[in-house]
Specification:
The structure holds two protein chains of two kinds. Chain A is mainly α. Chain A is built from twelve helices and no strands. Chain B starts with 7 loop residues before the first helix and ends with a helix. Classes of the chains: A mainly alpha, B mainly alpha.
């Protein structure tokens, strides 16, 4: 499915842009990955004795797969709320640079910060990746409405998958559960790799993968932060050096 | 826990340990990112850090796998992801082919191990 050209009358109002955003959910394989991941999250919540309403609320409010898996599995294993909060906070750091890099694509000169609050909540890996792919095909003035549509569409898919996974949990074999859990790293790796535009992105990905096992030996609790900031900064340094040369 | 949502205590835990830790980072990004220029060098660095942190999350799941994934031997987890990546590259960056291949390797490997 292709989006209409930038000057098409179909972009004339926000509602149409919202609808195009929502239907773009069908244009990406990442929707399938999210669906399966949230099946897994629903099943995990069921097995850890959380209620259906609770896990649906977590999909709605948290809106980040790895954070939900960490939250449910740490709480389920008897960790304290503080331990769970720390683990989730560290994994959520990635959202900060993602938001910082997506928002400038949505803004126009008239945009106020409050117009971006709703779109900001939707930003997670999938939306981050899809914004880079889709937003150049959307007129700047309609991008916020488009992202609202895309976000609502993905959220609907994930809420359905959460409920379905919760209901199916008792019938899911362990092999299936393992396959679903592998989806997150696999899809994250490939979608990030597809997203690489500059040498700095490729280096950041490779160095980030390579430095984490080293940082993990420090057992600081913020290992991901240490490896991420150092790998990202080295990658940026190489980019800066090449631009200058 | 009873009812659809369960008790309020559980919901409070969700807000404290799930919602706030994620939303705080997003809002911090909104506060900073609301003012950054699209073509700025700062964004190149920020994107590199976002990519590297995400790479860290990927590596963490593979090294310290959660739940049922821990029942898969190390070499099979790494092998499945490596196979998925090779197919992704060979198919001119098709995420779908890469994901399917990685999953097939995992399922076949696990089936073969019994």
């Amino acid at each position: 499915m292709a989006l209409p050209p930038l000057d098409s009358p179909q972009w004339q109002n926000s509602l149409c842009a919202f609808a195009w955003g929502m239907s773009s959910v069908a244009s990406t394989v990442l929707t399938l990955v999210l669906f399966a991941t949230y099946l897994g999250i629903g099943a995990l919540a069921h097995d850890t004795h959380f209620s259906l309403g609770w896990v649906l609320a977590s999909t709605l409010l948290v809106w980040a797969g790895p954070a939900q898996i960490i939250l449910i599995s740490t709480l389920g294993s008897g960790a304290t709320v503080v331990q769970a909060a720390v683990a989730v906070t560290v994994s959520a750091v990635r959202l900060f640079p993602m938001v910082v890099s997506v928002l400038p694509m949505l803004r126009t000169s008239q945009t106020k910060r409050r117009h971006l609050v709703f779109a900001t909540h939707f930003i997670a890996v999938t939306l981050w990746v899809e914004c880079y792919r889709l937003l150049p095909q959307v007129p700047r003035g309609r991008r916020i409405a488009f992202v609202h549509g895309l976000g609502c569409g993905l959220l609907t898919v994930c809420l359905s998958a959460t409920a379905l996974g919760y209901g199916l949990a008792a019938n899911l074999p362990q092999l299936f559960a393992a396959a679903i859990l592998l989806l997150t790293p696999l899809a994250f790796l490939l979608s990030t790799a597809r997203n690489c535009r500059q040498i700095s992105d490729i280096l950041a990905l490779v160095l980030g993968l390579a430095l984490y096992p080293l940082a993990a030996t420090l057992h600081t609790g913020v290992d991901i932060l240490i490896s991420g900031i150092s790998a990202g900064t080295i990658a940026y340094g190489v980019h800066w050096w090449r631009e200058r040369a | 826990m009873s009812g659809f949502v369960g008790d309020w205590h559980a919901l409070l835990i969700l807000v404290l340990a799930g919602f706030i830790p994620n939303e705080a980072w997003r809002l911090a990004g909104l506060w900073l990112g609301g003012g950054v220029d699209e073509g700025s060098e700062l964004l190149v660095w920020v994107r590199a850090v976002a990519t590297a942190i995400l790479a860290g999350v990927i590596a963490q799941i593979l090294l310290q796998p959660p739940g049922a994934l821990a029942s898969v031997p190390d070499w099979l987890r790494y092998g499945a992801v490596a196979a998925g990546f090779c197919v992704f590259v060979a198919t001119r960056r098709s995420i779908f082919s890469g994901v399917v291949c990685g999953e097939i390797v995992l399922l076949a490997g696990k089936g073969w191990l019994g």
